[in-house]
Amino acid sequence: MDNYMKLEIPSKSKNESFARVVVAAFASQLDPTMEEISDIKTAVSEAVTNSIIHGYINDTGIIVIEARLIYNKLEIEIIDYGTGIEDIEKAREPLYTSKPELERSGMGFTIIEKFMDQLDIQSEIGKGTVIKMVKIIQKNSTDKKEALS
Amino acid sequence: MNVEMETRGNNLMVRLKGELDHHAAESFRSRIQKELEKGRARNLVLNMSGLSFMDSSGIGVILGRYNFIKKTGGKIAVCNLKPQVRKVFHTAGLSSIIKEYGSEEEAAEKL
I need a labelling partner for B93 at 20 to 30 A (CA). Which of A105, B34, B60, B85 fits? Predict the structure, then answer.
């Protein structure tokens, strides 16, 4: 493994910006484009926001952000120990939200899927959720195909 | 996030500066909603030239205002979206219901 980071933060919304910047700074070691950095920040923002709003709802809990750099691949895990997702497939549906009263757009996972190259969600009710996202930082598409295989 | 608001005729011009994420969304939502409920302006123009970041929380606030304004026959327009903001806007499908213009003036005129 080329490099690794781990960050633990309380589920406060003021930490959303901080989380975006930390992962972006870590990813900058791979010399990404501005768009790739924006994509990563957006995906981290969505995942961390999900942990705050859905994982911990009205409580405060710990969110762990881990990231790895392997060659030109960035792997991020956003972990919470909150309520968990009852139906992951439903949660991934565009526009679906379990909290319409909060004016949530229900586009969080859709945005992550569009902005990142891979999204994997593991969750257990009462235990928590792990959002795993991968971004290939690449200068040409053959690198990308190789790295994803 | 910083918000500047100005009523010009039938349009509420709102200038955003900073980042519109979940943290900023609630106060942004209540500020705009309060102003819209005064009923002075029918349309909403969001000038995003100063907006460096937006995620789906911003989409939620904008959609909520769209649904509110639609009831009174008003329209929303946005202008000067930065690349990241535009990408989120498109991915969320908002570009099919809210038009983007090149400037505040153009948006105000077209509305």
Answer: B34
